[in-house]
Amino acid sequence: MSLTREEVQHIATLCRIALSPEEVDHLSGQLSHILEQFQVLEEVDTQDVTPTSHSVDLNSVMRDDEVTACLDVEHVLANAPRREGDYFKVNVVLEEQHDRPV
Predict the structure, then answer these.
(1) What's the pTM value of the predicted model, to 2 decimals?
(2) What are the C-alpha distances in Å from 94 to residues 9, 25, 90?
(3) Could you give the C-alpha distances from 77 to 17, 72, 85, 92, in angstroms and in order?
């Protein structure tokens, strides 16, 4: 199955990715190859294969939740490089920018 340039551009638009004409040509070949591989898989006889949700057995390593006492605030913040009251103080990660549309 071969994808057209228009189909690749449509996929890029859905993904909100801007592509140059050269990238569209390059990705057209790569995406077409991926779809061809799925066609090969469709030809595999899976009639006698038992459906599975995972390829290996899963054993949960999770423990049951248990209620325990909270740590003391002073103990928790003892090694904090900066604090403000009973909270860690960190640098701003995201700032609001009012000059750009969201």
Answers:
(1) 0.46
(2) 32, 36, 12
(3) 43, 9, 10, 19
The number of domains in the chain is: 1
What pLDDT is stored for residue 56 in this prediction?
A: 78
Question: Does residue 16 belong to any structural domain of this protein?
Answer: yes
Q: What is the pLDDT of residues 2-43, one digit of tens each?
A: 899 999 999 999 999 999 999 999 999 999 999 999 999 999
Cβ proximity of 24 and 47 under 8 Å: no
3-state SS, residue 31: helix
- List the end-to-end C-alpha distance of the chain, in Å, as a whole number: 38
